[in-house]
Recover the amino acids of this structure.
């Protein structure tokens, strides 16, 4: 089920679900390993912490769909947990590799502010999560939450950093900011169109 009725749209949904447990475990594990990486000065451990975060993020979403346990509360929990992981890991990465500081600032502002507002916008419509935003607007969904967009928006920056291509990483981060700004403008238009502003 992708749409929720108006009553379900204002309820939080069950919190004790397998995907939410996975989200909690991957968040604690990724942040813990990230802090250990920072304290020990280990770039390899930082890479492991990113791996835990990404694998866990894929696994919680897959499990939610597979078990029929998608909830709006779970979607918000996932969004908040993604920000916690990204903030800690990005700050740790800058501490370990100071050359990425400018990229990190652009990326963090985009992800923590612009992308958070966009990701939470699904709550204004009767859909379960941003993954179903195509039911509201296909272009905004394709640029932000389609599988290709999810990989490009984060992995593009981190991948370029991993290969020490810092100008490329900055270019990708700036391009992501442009996409997010366009998407926010589009979502504001959708809110006005649907009388939700």
């Amino acid at each position: 089920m992708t749409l929720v009725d108006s009553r379900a749209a204002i309820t939080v949904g069950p919190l004790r679900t397998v995907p939410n447990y996975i989200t909690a475990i991957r968040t604690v594990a990724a942040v813990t390993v990230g802090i250990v990486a920072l304290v020990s000065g280990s770039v390899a451990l930082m890479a492991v912490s990113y791996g835990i975060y990404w694998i866990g993020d894929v696994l919680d979403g897959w499990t939610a769909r597979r078990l029929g346990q998608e909830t709006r509360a779970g979607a918000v929990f996932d969004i908040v947990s993604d920000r916690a992981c990204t903030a800690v890991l990005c700050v740790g990465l800058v501490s370990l590799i100071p050359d990425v500081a400018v990229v990190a600032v652009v990326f963090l502002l985009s992800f923590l502010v612009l992308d958070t507002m966009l990701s939470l916008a699904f709550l204004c419509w009767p859909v379960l999560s941003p993954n179903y935003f195509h039911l509201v607007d296909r272009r905004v969904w394709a640029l932000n939450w389609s599988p290709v967009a999810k990989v490009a928006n984060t992995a593009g920056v981190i991948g370029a950093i991993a290969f020490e291509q810092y100008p490329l990483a900055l270019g990708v981060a700036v391009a992501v900011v442009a996409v997010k700004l366009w998407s926010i403008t589009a979502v504001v238009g959708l809110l006005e169109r649907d009388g939700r502003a």
Notes: The chain has a mean pLDDT of 91.
